[in-house]
Amino acid sequence: MYTIGVDIGSLVTKIVLMKDDKVIDFLIDRSSFQFNEVAKQLFHQLLAKYHLRRDDITWITSTGYGRHSLDIADDQVTEITAHARGVLFYFSNVASIIDIGGQDSKVMKIRDGKVIDFQMNDKCAAGTGRFLEVMAHALEVKLEDLGHLALSSKSPERVSSTCTVFAESEVISLFTQGAKKENIAMGIHISIAKRVGAMAKRINVIPPLVFCGGVAWNAAVKKALEDELGFRIEVPENPQITGALGAALIGYARKKK
To answer: Which of 5, 107, 114, 164 lies in disulfide reach of 247, CB 3.0 to 4.6 Å?
Structure first.
């Protein structure tokens, strides 16, 4: 049985192809403003790569910010549900999950494989991938280099603003005052950890805690979160695809019944 999960995020679209309960392949691309078209392009790329037809796919499940826009989906599930199921694929004993995406961040508490509580920041870009993009631009650093730069800091600067616009002004001000880029960068990562950490503490997260979403690739955010929460955090092999993976697994479970 082939199933597909599609996670249409505000910045990035992820698609996972599974055969029964095994991951065959996945693709990732920028979402742009054409959620449906980008997702379908990735879908057809996967089909062509494995010489499959639409009729070969038993079930397509969409999730994410643009899940309702995908007109080839058989069903939709929430991001909370999809990410929880995707993380459980990698870590069967997970107790808590932090997912930081392009435009929102989520914290979940898991018991016996089910979400029992969660917090979600979807009103502001602070503490998200978009926040990091803006800060990288302000520091004139490539986004993929920002975390490595931050980890070289010896004396992090304090970035106190919780608003992306004000934080950008604060970062530019620190830079013009002669603060070192690496110290500003680490201050940015600490500010994210404090914001997301506050959400995590409100629902009393406990280890094992898994960090997923595209921002989980950033080692400085992981370290800052570990410092903020006081315990080690795990990162899946492919942290960016947990939502799409979870959606595919949910589709497989539904059709298997």
So the answer is: 5
* Architecture of the domain delimited by 94-235: 2-Layer Sandwich (3.30)
Query: What does the pLDDT look like over 180-212, one tens digit per residue?
Result: 999 999 999 998 999 999 999 999 999 999 999
Class of 2-82+241-256 in CATH: alpha beta
For 158, the token pair is 């304090």
- The Cα–Cα gap between 128 and 189 comes to 10
Instruction: Give me the residue spans of the domains in the chain.
Output: 2-82+241-256, 94-235
pTM of model > 0.85: yes
Strand ranges of the sheet holding 105-111, from the earlier edge strand across to the other edge = 114-121, 105-111, 96-100, 209-212, 233-234
pLDDT tens for each residue of 75-105: 999 999 999 999 999 999 999 999 998 888 9
